[in-house]
Q: What sequence folds into this?
């Protein structure tokens, strides 16, 4: 028997960073906060990125086959909060955020982030309410040093 309270408590103990995932398909660009990201291979360098299936960005990643990940520092909680909101409700989330287009993917990269990776999708698993996109890291860069923003340090909960 699955104890729902225990399940939620334990799944929320899995540590998560907070990142901005940049997406682009043609002229359409967006960014959204992700916390379900992890490295899964050294050779080739692979990450998995869990993207909510009912989001507009999910379709952009599915169609374009690319995404970027900007790594946030511990002082960028407000930026992470801004990108949690759906674009269809709040409009262009990148309008007042300095970013540039990644060389490898064209996806937006947050200029004031710790750094970034750019990925091409090499596989996807569509199960449950999120799709797991497997991305091969094809570009990366470091902007500055700093402590990474962690979900557990925000007081927010996403998971369980």
A:
């Amino acid at each position: 028997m699955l104890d729902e309270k225990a399940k939620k408590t334990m799944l929320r103990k899995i540590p998560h960073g907070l990142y901005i995932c940049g997406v682009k398909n043609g002229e359409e660009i967006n960014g959204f906060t992700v916390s379900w990201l992890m490295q899964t291979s050294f050779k080739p360098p692979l990450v998995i990125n869990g993207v909510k299936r009912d989001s507009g960005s999910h379709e952009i990643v599915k169609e374009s086959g690319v995404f970027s990940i900007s790594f946030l520092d511990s002082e960028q909680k407000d930026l992470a909060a801004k990108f949690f909101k759906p674009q269809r409700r709040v409009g262009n989330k990148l309008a007042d955020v300095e970013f540039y287009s990644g060389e490898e993917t064209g996806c937006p990269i947050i200029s004031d982030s710790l750094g970034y990776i750019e990925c091409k999708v090499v596989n996807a698993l569509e199960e449950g309410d999120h799709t797991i996109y497997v991305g091969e890291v094809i570009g990366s860069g470091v902007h500055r040093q700093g402590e990474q923003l962690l979900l557990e340090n925000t007081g927010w909960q996403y998971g369980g």
The chain has a mean pLDDT of 92. The two ends are 16 Å apart (CA to CA). Residues 16-153 form a domain with the Pnp Oxidase; Chain A fold (CATH 2.30.110.10). The first strand starts at residue 19 and ends at 25.
